[in-house]
Amino acid sequence: MKDFIAGQYVQQPYYKSFQPNPINRSWKIDNMELINLLSQADREMGKLDMYSEYIPNIDLFIHMNVVKEATQSNKIEGTQTTIEDALLDKESVPLDKRDDWEEVQNYVAAMTFAIKKLEELPFCSRLIRDTHKILLQGVRGNKKLPGEFRVSQNWIGGASINDAIFIPPHQSTINDLMTDLESFSHSTTNNLPILLKIALIHYQFETIHPFLDGNGRIGRLMITLFLVSTGTLKQPVLYLSDFFEKNRSNYYDKLTRVREHNDILNWLKFFLVGIIETAQKSIQTFDNILRLQKEVDIKLSGLGIRAKNATTLINYLYQSPFINITETSKLLKITNVASAKLISLLEQVNILKEITGLKRDRVYVFNDYLKLFNS
Q1: How far apart are CA 91 and CA 336, in angstroms?
Q2: Which of 29, 65, 231, 294 has a CA positioned 20 to 30 A from the CA of residue 201?
Q3: What is the dihedral of CA 49, 51, 54, 57, to 10 degrees?
């Protein structure tokens, strides 16, 4: 990778845009530190993939992973929605927080759509555009050509293009650059391992910045999408936005250094460290979930005739850990009185916790489970 040249600045009428070089070419890895990191990342990914294959009812927990990813990816862009906020219904969210909340919901919907769509489409520009359309539907940025590559110049940072931090390539080159990126993603002749390939795809996509808005979120969503599309992961259980958000300055600095100093090596190392740390944390979360499941099952077994309904309710809470009496009645098809008694029992055995302090319209949380995603 010593001969890597990121691109060059191109003079436009009154500014210079950065034109990245194509990435669909031969690559040679000649750095032992990178090779060692890649080996470790592959091992951790293998462990995580094994967990996703053998944990019963893994789909119950994937939704919570996606919600956490959505809150962290949007947080990088400046939204303030917490995972607790994201799990509330719209009417329960204060008016001044609803715009942020809706952007997080769109991210969840976009990720869910994209993973499902992989059954019909490969990882490609069409899939990326369709996912982007959902991401921006009805929220800030919905007037900026959702689902379409830009046809005008954009920029990053600064009040105007004149004081921008970074100006991506001219709009006339977007289609060719995205065709190159797509070809690279499917190429079997460039000799790059999957994890290095997606690291390069993410860098190149963020440099191209092909949409007028939402590029950061789509670029991070694409990481999980690509890993699932290649069979590297059987389930969408690895999300890097939490790592990127916690290392936000480093994240942007590494991307910038590639463009300004051709330093692709440090970006790849940083990305692999993110894979390793995120996979390890995900494995620990799944371990904690399995441990919690055993503890909860023991408690439920002592509820007698209410154990069956309690189990159904708990399985619902593994997907979204907030509930009220009315929702419980609808879910279990029982009366509000019966729901209140069941919830009271779950409070007594320390599974549910009331969080409003109200006498009416109370909300309960499966707190020990929620804490696993906030740690």
Answers
A1: 21
A2: 65
A3: -110
Alpha-carbon distances, residue 188 vs 120, 175, 231, 244 (angstroms)? 21, 22, 15, 29
Answering whether pTM is above 0.70, one says yes
Joined together, the tokens standing for residue 130 give 């369709």
Domain range 7-284, CATH class:
mainly alpha
Residue 124: helix, strand or coil by DSSP?
Answer: coil
- Domain spans of the chain, in order of start: 7-284, 302-374
Three-state DSSP state, 322: strand
Spatial distance between the Cα atoms of 293 and 315, rounded to a whole number of angstroms: 10
Which residues make Cβ contacts (< 8 Å) with residue 14, sequence separation at least 6?
A: none
Q: Are 142 and 117 in contact (CB under 8 A)?
A: no
pLDDT in tens, 83-142: 999 988 888 888 888 999 999 999 999 999 999 999 999 999 999 999 999 999 988 878
Torsion angle, alpha carbons of 253, 255, 257, 263, to 10:
130
| 317 Cβ contact list (under 8 Å, min separation 6) | 323, 366, 369
Q: Where are the alpha helices (DSSP H) in the chain?
A: 32-54, 58-76, 83-86, 98-117, 125-135, 174-186, 194-208, 215-229, 241-246, 248-261, 264-301, 307-317, 325-332, 336-348, 367-374
Contact between 279 and 238 under an 8 Å Cβ cutoff? The reply is: yes
Q: Which residue has the tokens 């994201």?
A: 86
Report which residue type is found at 72. Answer: Q
Q: What is the CATH number of domain 302-374?
A: 1.10.10.10
Let me know if 239 is exposed, middle or buried by CB neighbors in 10 A (0-12, 13-18, 19+).
buried
Pair type for strands 364-365 and 353-354: antiparallel
Residue 50 token pair: 């094994």
pLDDT at 375 over 70: no
Q: pLDDT (tens digit, 9 = 90+) per residue, 295-335? A: 999 999 999 999 999 999 999 999 989 999 999 999 999 99
